[in-house]
Amino acid sequence: DAGVIQSPRHEVTEMGQEVTLRCKPISGHNSLFWYRQTMMRGLELLIYFNNNVPIDDSGMPEDRFSAKMPNASFSTLKIQPSEPRDSAVYFCASSLRDSYQPQHFGDGTRLSIL
Amino acid sequence: AQTVTQSQPEMSVQEAETVTLSCTYDTSENNYYLFWYKQPPSRQMILVIRQEAYKQQNATENRFSVNFQKAAKSFSLKISDSQLGDTAMYFCAFMTNTGNQFYFGTGTSLTVIP
Question: Closest partner residue to B43 among A89, A102, A104, by Cβ?
Answer without folding.
Answer: A89
